[in-house]
Amino acid sequence: MKLRIATLTLTLVLAANCIAAVPYIVVLGTAQDAGVPQMGCDTPFCKRAWADPTLSETVSSIALVDPRTGGRWIFDATPDLPEQFQFLKGVTGDRSNRLDGIFLTHAHIGHYTGLMYLGRESMNANAVTTYAMPRMKLMLEQNAPWSQLVSLRNIALTPLFDKTPVKLAEDIAVEPFLVPHRDEFSETVGYRITVRGRKLVFIPDIDKWEKWPTPLGELVRASDHLLIDGTFFADGEIARPMSEVPHPFVAETMKLLASLSKADRAKVIFTHFNHSNPLVQRDKKASAEVKSKGFRIARRGMRIEL
Questions:
Q1: Would the pTM count as exceeding 0.85?
Q2: What are phi and psi of 5, to 5 degrees?
């Protein structure tokens, strides 16, 4: 009788663990490419952030974790990759160097330069699967020092194609899709991560929404979560003409999506903040405005179960 009870208890524990072990997204960083604070910045906020490390932010990146298999995939190899990989080890409880793949969005400094830490001067990784669109792949193959990562097999480039999903498990797929951006060296893509039918969209960089044929409201309604470009909060935030860096302002995005239901607005999470953005500066008024309108703000360590 005791044996039967013990067996039943073990079965229930294993079943509970199986239910709890669902794939999830974890936010590894939320800053624009140059981080927070930025090099050379001497604004009052930057001065405080240089003096107080708790005000700093690592560059925008997320990870997909499948606790059922131990799988770990990182989206964008940022200049903060070493710190972010160590953070991911702590989140998952797996202290090994297992890294099942890296998905790149485009060839701006905050999104691929962390690949250098996979080279022989650092981790000397062994053929980390690195997913890249055709122009991005070609750029890495043909230009030093990235070409050395390819020739030494520190990374194994795997081609991606627009709207063609990559299957990572029976119930996990990652689909890249082209978005308009300053494509000097490569295409720019966002990603749709589908897990057990649930969808999370990751678009850290895009030009104004009106430049994209996809209506943002429809994308929100068709998704379960969205981590999207929140580089600037509003016009006039930086000294240079903001038309030169035409990201959608957080204020514009909130206005565009204002007619959505409360449930749909709650799906939208802003990330990729420039150091000038009051949201990354933890400005109470700006943060309260975003939350009062039903949207969310990404923070490092945020976990989203799928």
A1: yes
A2: -65, -45
